[in-house]
Amino acid sequence: MIWYFLYPFRRTTEAPVLAPTHPLRDGLSRYGSYAASHVVTTLLVSVAVATMLIYPIPFLFTTDFINGASNLPHHAWTVAQPLPYGAAIHPDVMMRSIWVHSSYMQALDKDLLISALDLQDELLGSTEGFNPSRGRREDRLIPQDSVLDLSPKQRDAFHAINGLTNQSWFFHSPLQYWDCSRERIFADPDILTTVNDKKNQSTSVNVTLRHSIVFSGKRFEERRLTAADALVITLVYLRDSPIGRQWERKTAMLPDKVADKWDIYPPDGCSSASQLYEFHFRPISRQDSVILSIAYALTALYFFMSLSKLRAFKSKFGLILTVLTQTAFCLMSSFTICAIFRVDLSRIPRAAYPLVVLAMSLENIFRLINAVILTPPEDSTNSRIGHAFGETAYTAIASSMQNVILLALLSQWVSPGVSAFCIFAAIAIVFDLFYLSTFFLSVLSVDVRRTELSDALAKVSMRHNRAVSEMNARSAWELILQGKMTMSTRIASTIIILGFVLIAQWHFFEDDTIFHFLGRILRGSHFADTSSAEKSSLDTIHQARSPKSWLRMQDHETAHEIISIIKPTAHSYVARVYEPVVFVMKGADRMPHLKEPTLLPAAYDFINHQLTQFMVIVVVILAAVRLLTNYLLWEEDANGDDHHLDGDALLSIKSFPGGHVLDVAMMTASPDGHVVSVGLDRIIRVWDIRPGGINYILSDGDKSEDAPFPVFAMTIDDGSRWLAILSSYKAALWNLKDRRWGPTLPVDLYGQKPEAFFFNPSNEHEVIPRLVLVRRNGTLTEFIPETGEGEDFGICRSPLTCVRPLFEPSKPASPGRVSLVTASRRGCVHAAIRESSSWNSRGVELDGLGDDDVHQVVPLPLLGLYLVAGAGCAHLMNLDDDSLIHTFQTERMAPRSLQCVHSPRQTTQSGTGGLTWFTLCYTESESGDCILQTCMPPEEGDLIWYNCSATPTRRGWCSWESAKETRRHVENPGTWNVLSDGSVVGVRQKSGLNHSILSEERRRPNGLRHRSPRKELSRDVFGRWEVWTVFQAGRATMHETRPLIQDDDKAGHLIVSELGPMVKVGQKTVTFSFGNVVKVVTVGGHERFEDGSEDQAREYMKTGSRRRKAPMTRPRAWS
């Protein structure tokens, strides 16, 4: 709502969108990612808080208001409230009372009870054995002389039990527990027991002598009254009652009679000050029931309509159960807090409370779910949840703060019953945020992790993007009616809360209008306190509860009973309540020696008597929930999907030591989780990095003369079945499935490392795919492993510097094809396409290409495009005709450092493809920074028309020229790699550390023998290495660092100055060597390794990665 008030300044009603780098959004995104990666912990925290706040409810609430516990709401509107001074209302009854005090909190002393009985008899006449029904047959005669007292029989004749007239009266007094008998009071051995046993005793007019109406300043323990500060004797009479005039006359005479025993306030005994109070007890009407039913029906309709649009949930019943559970947690937690702090919620019908909580919860829940659905489905679960939470949480927080402030202000202007409801709603808003960010977020992250939901999210995202152009062309109302667009509910909860507050206020002021109510707010007139703030003479006697406070907390059941006496057909009555005449026994000590408890007495009883049992129950419930979550998630655990539900951070690091004695010099990997490493110890080892995987030695060069050493290159085929190892004079094939050697091909490399070595999967009928070897001199050799034959083809006449294969996937209209893109020392670029029996190579003609210092080509097989990288630019080319589509201007690029990743290709109904983002990642040549350069559509939901340089004319599309470009710098990146979701993961040495230790080791002639860290140096040597990850600009905002080597993981590591080779495995995992140890880093949760996945990793050559010396840069911190 605040955004509507700010419309004249902002010219929009939409909530502001914080930048991904904003500290608030970044912090919320980090928390969302953490909660998603620690699901069980987050869930247990929410369950623990809910249990601690729900379990005490039976001990804090009761239907009996007099025992120190809070009262549960009923199906009625109840309130006891003062009316404004000068209100033109004729009271239904008058109330006069006397308060009798002894020492502080000593009102249940026998001597005080006897003395109070004397005062009562002085005012009303003898009340021993009071039975007014005996005066039913007496004539109602009023003495001619007004100074004469009524006889007991005359007095009883006017009692309300004998017929209601304008002269009727009745009273209630604590002395009625003993039938107003002096002898019974003296004979009572235990006053406290009598008071507690007779708390439900009724008077002759069926008014229950509750402790709340006959005592003031009560103290409770174990739901029993243990002390009271004052005895309250109250006379209730109608306008013409002679008993009221007698009471008024007699109280004025008491100071002269009892001044030697009592201090009286006011001193003259005349209580002329009075105020009108309304006591309201209205059962919920048929009209109220209809309104509430309509409100619940509309809420359910909104919920199920919103639910029907969500195709991404595996179990909609589970979502319904989760929402209802969160609502119950929020509702009961708020009730507990209100009870502890003595907020009386019994004045509003109980049916209203769940409605308000639901209205607040659903708004935030569906906003979060829709944000998750709109996140790229290829992102990791942690990234998706964190990004969605960071995008929506600050809006939810702002909206909640706005509602809390609004409710706090309203609570000062409305009636006491509605004020308590405002306090409850404000507390419920806070708990709704808490349970949304813990309970619901953990359940949502579990659902998102499941494969079924991930697939559905991808389809929903594709449908959303396909329909963009159509949605823009239609009216918003048409799309809402068709269910393709949701109506904004950002202010729904605020409207519902304000509406209910106004309706509730109207119930308590039936004769008032909304305009009068709003007018009083503008004039600053409070409902809660209409009395003056003058200092009272009663302040000197330190009453435990003031008369005004005592009146406002009167039990609504008592009001209901009095209404049934004086206005049987009404739901409220107005009483003129006179200030009480207070009697304090002389010599009484009125100074409180102990501070009265602030919280509800039942809360202290719970702590004193239930704390041990409470702690045991909490522990048992947490253990049960932990076991239940383990049972419910056992399928994911068995499949290896989410066995790290409670342990995964954003970065997960695993070590595989013991495989090599010396450094690992070369690595390659397959999509299904197989990693092959070659060490300087002449050992080739195969690792299975999946959970439960094993590793084995493929070849040991020291034990076999036939071992393929030295190894120049390695590659794995698309099906992860065959491994090819290229040495100086042969290419050996190893079957990864059967673990056996295949055929050996004779090759002569003439001592030079090849530029490319890969399998050609174009012929599906071949048992072993063909091998392609590209030499530095521009010659391509294609081998047929089954026959051992090879054929040479010319690709380029210049020496090659970069060669990349391009595997285009099969399409319904055409089979997949294999291509090759090369760059040479002279700056020329060639594209070679595998045809039926040969390779057809052609030069790429592009103006100015020779002046760009071309050093690299990067294939984009899923798009049928490739990049040509120069020193300060990257040209996007079409593979079909080598036409230029777009030129990206970059910063000065280090040679062969460019990597590229993009969103999945979205295909519309017209067959046109589009992208939601496109990222270039490279190393800046001067500073050594890693730069993420991202292109995105300027409007959310649009697509980039990637395969054409022309500007699209249809809505929902943008060209490369109009795409929004953002850049993010990572300083001191070390060795890094780009993952398929656009994130970058790297390993580096922390900046600003002293490297003298390592230099000292280097200078020693026998340093190789002492590369195992000494105890005193191990912390300095390994502590500076860390793993980092960062997401592309404009996307998820999380970035995280983590030590590469933990304190308990240092054994077996060698001291190194730089990392070994790094290769990508699967969608979000990289593996690299740290000396002789193979390490695996996964970003954003557990990796699902798949055979033959159409991974964007195939855009890069799957040949072995060698360790190469990184350019020297000064250490810097990354931003």
Automatic annotation (TrEMBL):
Main location as per UniProt: membrane
Record-linked SUPFAM superfamilies: Multidrug efflux transporter AcrB transmembrane domain, WD40 repeat-like
Source species, domain of life: Eukaryota
Domain annotation SSD: ranges: 288-446
Positions of the UniProt region annotated as Disordered: 1092-1119
Lipid bilayer topology: Multi-pass membrane protein
UniProt biased composition (Basic and acidic residues): 1092-1101
One Gene Ontology MF term: sterol binding
Any single GO BP term: cholesterol metabolic process
WD repeat extents: 657-690
Transmembrane segments: 34-55, 289-305, 317-341, 353-373, 421-444, 491-509
Keyword Transmembrane helix: yes
Pfam families xref list: Sterol-sensing (PF12349)
Recorded GO CC terms: endoplasmic reticulum membrane; ER to Golgi transport vesicle membrane; Golgi membrane; SREBP-SCAP complex
Location(s) in or outside the cell: Cytoplasmic vesicle, COPII-coated vesicle membrane; Endoplasmic reticulum membrane; Golgi apparatus membrane
UniProt KW keywords: Cholesterol metabolism, Cytoplasmic vesicle, Endoplasmic reticulum, Glycoprotein, Golgi apparatus, Lipid metabolism, Lipid-binding, Membrane, Repeat, Steroid metabolism, Sterol metabolism, Transmembrane, Transmembrane helix, WD repeat
Family under the similarity heading: Belongs to the WD repeat SCAP family.
Function: Escort protein required for cholesterol as well as lipid homeostasis. Regulates export of the SCAP-SREBP complex from the endoplasmic reticulum to the Golgi upon low cholesterol, thereby regulating the processing of sterol regulatory element-binding proteins (SREBPs) SREBF1/SREBP1 and SREBF2/SREBP2. At high sterol concentrations, formation of a ternary complex with INSIG (INSIG1 or INSIG2) leads to mask the ER export signal in SCAP, promoting retention of the complex in the endoplasmic reticulum.
PANTHER family attached to this UniProt entry: STEROL REGULATORY ELEMENT-BINDING PROTEIN CLEAVAGE-ACTIVATING PROTEIN
Record protein name field: Sterol regulatory element-binding protein cleavage-activating protein
Native species: Thelonectria olida
